[in-house]
């Protein structure tokens, strides 16, 4: 029998970004050593922090949460700061931060666990500050459990979770463990928390907008001259802004799931649209072109470094669509190509944040469709003139200045010689829960028909049944390429690595090691998929015949290791399970049910096997 897997999640969060030196930003051991003389002289310890301290530490939790942006695909950003109240003999002292952590990516250890690990014994009796209620869902109570086991006595929460199936669940669990929980806006209401609340809202703006409007959070970015031009009359646009501003654009791309341009941008600028300084996350590049009048050769057609999608009108240039497909570019047809439908499609793909780097005509269309939520305008100190020179936003149909769209929460930042002006054009949604009375809650859901087949969909790890995802943070203990048992961080790590396991080639073995060390399942998937495309000769020759069995062994180990997952799976008896990936037509169900849904089918097969109604050996299973 193989040795049992370790009880705690594995993985290491990346080093925090550099910050200004201060006592609160010193390493943990330095903070504790510096505080030791004060602690020894302490006459008494405050029972709770002041409201000013609470607000400061909550803002810090939001800042910590923001460290994950730019490292991997945007997800709910969680930050946790653990602090202890301090008091000198004669005067109050600033609170002592003893631990902090953030969720690096979906499928990696949660912020609360990392903060509790850093704090160690110093967490006992301390307060934990969370910018967002923990995302504990079915089968995973790591975040709450970490705070309970650490001995935390009080938790301050900036926002309740915006997803309905998670909202209030972790708060209730903490309170059931006799931990005092204060929620901003409910238990804490005064001027000190206004800025702290805005910090918590801003760091998770993508999730809030997506939840409220069912489209990804969209940012329109452009660079213009002081006289409002984004190019010369000839169309030449390189470069309006300076090098430092262009570096900031790379950061914006790294925080986004996708970058959108129009056909003119491809024809005139031939951009790459990569986040060249970002190592952990590469956004998808999306081109909107109604006629598909695009060049045969373009930087965006090289999909080795980044994936490209071309959205077009149904039936446009079928021959060119085939050429793009042969290059690895995905073509998606729409009955009517417009920003609203494209954003709905991006929502279905699970995107949270989209960056628009398009010209004025497409920008105006997106604003008119109400899918742009924020604007980032880089203004260069130069003028170019030209009555025909293009401007950032085309015709919006406004004839009076009173119709102008005003920015909300405007900020200004000097970037070398340029000025970055940014602001929201739609307010951040307020998703504070409204609790109905018992008379307002129907006993039967009128939208559910008792005659319809019950379908349970899962995709992202924060979905109701997100634990079924291969990206969910459940390590599995299974053999590696040498036959020795290894703790794989997720099922996705195991699956991607086994594309190259057993291949007698040093490069293949290096790829396996890179996947094993990937910090998140998304990174593991990206390594496995890109290397499979780049070096098909390194993929095991029997992969297509064995990949289903590889996956089945992995998910069977996952569910047998964690009883809570087994119970969750059994609770779905009688329902059809669908992995609702809109683009993976083998493992997922596709956008319109055209996919094979092999992952959902394997989970249903495992469910039947656990219930004792399905044969367990491979030959019988394949025959069935």
UniProtKB/TrEMBL annotation:
It catalyses: 5-amino-6-(5-phospho-D-ribosylamino)uracil + H2O = 5,6-diaminouracil + D-ribose 5-phosphate; 2,5-diamino-6-hydroxy-4-(5-phosphoribosylamino)-pyrimidine + H2O = 2,5,6-triamino-4-hydroxypyrimidine + D-ribose 5-phosphate; 5-amino-6-(5-phospho-D-ribitylamino)uracil + NADP(+) = 5-amino-6-(5-phospho-D-ribosylamino)uracil + NADPH + H(+). Pathway: Cofactor biosynthesis; riboflavin biosynthesis; 5-amino-6-(D-ribitylamino)uracil from GTP: step 3/4. Gene3D superfamilies: Cytidine Deaminase, domain 2, Dihydrofolate Reductase, subunit A, YbiA-like. It is found in: Plastid, Chloroplast. The keyword Signal does not apply. Keywords: Chloroplast, Glycosidase, Hydrolase, Multifunctional enzyme, NADP, Oxidoreductase, Plastid, Transit peptide. PROSITE patterns: CYT_DCMP_DEAMINASES_2. Its EC number is 1.1.1.193. One of its GO terms (cellular component) is chloroplast. Pfam families: NADAR, RibD_C. The keyword Hydrolase applies. One of its GO terms (biological process) is carbohydrate derivative metabolic process. GO terms for molecular function: 5-amino-6-(5-phosphoribosylamino)uracil reductase activity; diaminohydroxyphosphoribosylaminopyrimidine deaminase activity; hydrolase activity, hydrolyzing N-glycosyl compounds; NADP binding. Residues 52-177 form the CMP/dCMP-type deaminase domain. InterPro entries: CMP_dCMP_dom (IPR002125), Cytidine_deaminase-like (IPR016193), DHFR-like_dom_sf (IPR024072), Eubact_RibD (IPR004794), NADAR (IPR012816), RibD_C (IPR011549), RibDG_C (IPR002734), Riboflavin_Biosynth_HTPR (IPR050765). In the C-terminal section; belongs to the YbiA family. This is Riboflavin biosynthesis protein PYRR, chloroplastic. It comes from Digitaria exilis.
């Amino acid at each position: 029998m193989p040795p049992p897997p370790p009880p705690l999640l594995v993985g290491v969060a990346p080093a925090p970004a550099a910050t200004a030196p201060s006592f609160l930003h010193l390493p943990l051991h330095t903070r504790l050593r510096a505080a030791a003389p004060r602690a020894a002289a302490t006459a008494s310890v405050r029972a709770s922090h002041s409201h000013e301290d609470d607000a400061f530490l909550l803002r810090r939790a939001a800042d910590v949460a923001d460290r994950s942006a730019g490292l991997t695909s945007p997800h709910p950003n969680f930050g946790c700061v653990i602090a202890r109240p301090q008091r000198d003999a004669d005067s109050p002292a600033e609170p002592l931060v003893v631990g902090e952590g953030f969720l690096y990516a979906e499928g990696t250890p949660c912020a609360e666990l990392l903060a509790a690990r850093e704090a160690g014994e110093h967490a006992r009796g301390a307060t934990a500050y969370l910018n967002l209620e923990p995302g504990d869902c079915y089968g995973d109570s790591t975040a709450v459990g970490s705070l309970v086991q650490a001995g935390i006595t009080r938790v301050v929460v900036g926002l309740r979770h915006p997803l309905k199936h998670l909202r209030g669940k972790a708060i209730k669990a903490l309170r059931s463990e006799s931990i005092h929980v204060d929620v901003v806006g409910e238990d804490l209401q005064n001027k000190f928390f206004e800025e702290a609340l805005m910090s918590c809202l801003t760091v998770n703006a993508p999730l809030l907008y997506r939840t409220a409007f069912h489209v990804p959070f969209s940012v329109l970015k452009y660079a213009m001259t002081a006289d409002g031009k984004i190019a010369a009359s000839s169309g030449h646009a390189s470069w309006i802004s300076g090098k430092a501003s262009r570096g900031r654009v790379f950061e914006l791309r790294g925080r986004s799931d996708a970058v959108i341009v129009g056909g003119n941008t491809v024809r005139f600028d031939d951009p790459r649209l990569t986040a060249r300084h970002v190592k952990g996350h590469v956004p998808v590049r999306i081109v909107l072109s109604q006629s598909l009048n695009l060049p045969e050769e373009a930087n965006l057609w090289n999909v080795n470094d980044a994936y490209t999608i071309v959205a077009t009108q149904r039936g446009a240039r079928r021959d060119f669509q085939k050429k793009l497909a042969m290059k690895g570019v995905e073509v998606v047809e729409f009955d009517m190509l417009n920003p609203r439908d494209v954003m709905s499609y991006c929502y279905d793909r699970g995107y949270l944040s989209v960056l628009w780097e398009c010209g004025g005509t497409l920008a105006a269309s997106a604003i008119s469709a109400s899918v742009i939520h924020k604007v980032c305008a880089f203004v260069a100190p130069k003028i170019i003139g030209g009555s025909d020179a293009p401007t950032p936003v085309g015709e919006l149909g406004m004839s009076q200045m009173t119709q102008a769209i005003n920015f909300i929460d405007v900020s200004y930042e000097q970037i070398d010689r340029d000025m970055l002006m940014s602001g929201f054009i739609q307010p951040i949604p307020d998703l504070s829960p409204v609790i109905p009375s018992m008379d307002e809650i129907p006993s039967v859901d009128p939208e559910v028909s008792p005659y319809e087949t019950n379908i349970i969909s899962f995709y992202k790890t924060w979905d109701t049944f997100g634990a079924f995802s291969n990206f969910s943070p459940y390590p599995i203990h299974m053999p590696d390429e040498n036959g020795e048992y290894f703790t794989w961080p997720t099922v996705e790590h195991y699956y991607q690595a086994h594309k190259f396991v057993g291949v007698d080639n040093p490069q293949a073995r290096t790829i396996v090691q890179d996947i094993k060390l990937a910090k998140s399942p998304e990174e593991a998937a990206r390594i496995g998929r890109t290397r499979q495309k780049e070096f098909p000769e390194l993929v095991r020759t029997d992969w297509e015949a064995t990949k289903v069995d590889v996956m089945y062994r992995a998910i069977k180990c996952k569910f047998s290791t964690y009883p809570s997952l087994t119970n969750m799976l059994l609770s779905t008896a009688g329902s059809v399970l669908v992995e609702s990936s809109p683009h993976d037509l083998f493992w997922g169900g596709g956008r319109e049910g055209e996919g094979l849904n092999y992952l959902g089918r394997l989970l249903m097969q495992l469910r039947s096997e656990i219930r004792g109604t399905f044969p367990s050996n491979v030959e019988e299973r394949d025959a069935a």
